[in-house]
Amino acid sequence: MGRPATSESARLAVASSGVDDHGDKFSDSIKVIWNGVPDKGMVTWKGTLKPDEILGVASYIYTLRGTKPPNPKPPENQAQPDKPNIYE
Predict the structure, then answer these.
(1) Is-contact 14 42, C-beta < 8 A?
(2) How far apart are CA 34 and CA 72, in angstroms?
(3) 61 in Cβ contact with 19 (< 8 Å)
(4) 36-75 burial, b if ≥16 CB within 10 A, otherwise e?
(5) Mean per-residue pLDDT for 54-72?
(6) Per residue in 1-49, pLDDT tens?
(7) Is the distance from CB of 21 to CB of 77 less than 8 angstroms?
(8) What is the pLDDT of residue 79?
């Protein structure tokens, strides 16, 4: 299993993916990265990343909160648009 994506693709995915669906706190991000979200298809990174790397990913995600990326992925907890977006 590879490392989590960084750069533009991660910024687009994370900033627009409804990270708040799993909590607004920094500790919530750590829990999601550590445990994954199997129902949403997110794997756990606890066996792949070291604890300090998980903290680094959580820190990066935290810096993206509130950003407005171009062509964001629609939130999964809302009604979908009538036509497919670029991710479908």
Answers:
(1) no
(2) 24
(3) yes
(4) eeeeeeeeebeeebeeeebeebbeebeebeeeeeeeebee
(5) 87
(6) 444 444 444 544 454 444 456 777 889 989 999 999 888 888 999 999 9
(7) yes
(8) 61
Nearest to 46 by CA among 30, 59, 24: 30
User: Rounded to the nearest 5°, which phi and psi values hold at 42?
Assistant: -90, 125
The residue-averaged pLDDT of 60-86 equals: 76
Phi, psi of 46 (to 5 degrees): -65, -30
pTM over 0.90: no
What is the DSSP track for 28-53? HHHHHHHH-BGGGTBPP-TTTS-HHH
CB 18 within 8 A of CB 76: yes
